[in-house]
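pasting for the record
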Amino acid sequence: MSPITPAIVLKAYAAGVFPMAESADDPALYWVEPEERGIIPLNGLVISRSLAKAVRQRRFEVRIDTAFGDVMRQCAARTADRKETWINQRILKLYGELHRMGHCHSVECWQDGKLVGGLYGVRIGAAFFGESMFSRATDASKVALVHLVARLNVGGFVLLDAQFMNPHLATLGAITVKKPDYLLMLNAATAKEADFTRFSGDDDPARVLDWATPR
């Protein structure tokens, strides 16, 4: 197997390509370049009444980058609803290194001291590439997404890449774009500076909802 380094992974993302594995048990990685890309417009997140209520009630304590490895391992775990996962040990190691370099982040939902939901992704310039999410409590991953979008808007990001479209993401406002259009958006986003740490309002539901649905 040829070595894939964190630097190579970042260059691949900037070119519209990302690595995956066939399964958690397969050590090989392959490169993916979809003809259609799922994205969530940063001014188009759909927040249902029940989801907004979950945010307002602060059902979860939302933390950033305090348990990145645990988030990845939970995303990689097999569950009753997810029999297979594409996150293998090489992915865990590579993205752990990217996290230590400051290019990978996690948004975490905690309840009664336990990690019950979250997501992680890669950051390059003003682009954020959502990799995977998990939920062990109702609406936990969705609440993490709302907080992520608020953070990206405050920080000056312009692209939230969801990679593949699926019915779940469609209910949250995700759309598909053709590869040529996506590459134009990607090039503009990666050439722009943004700040993932600028937002400090995760404990303020009103601010979170306001920034997650900018007018």
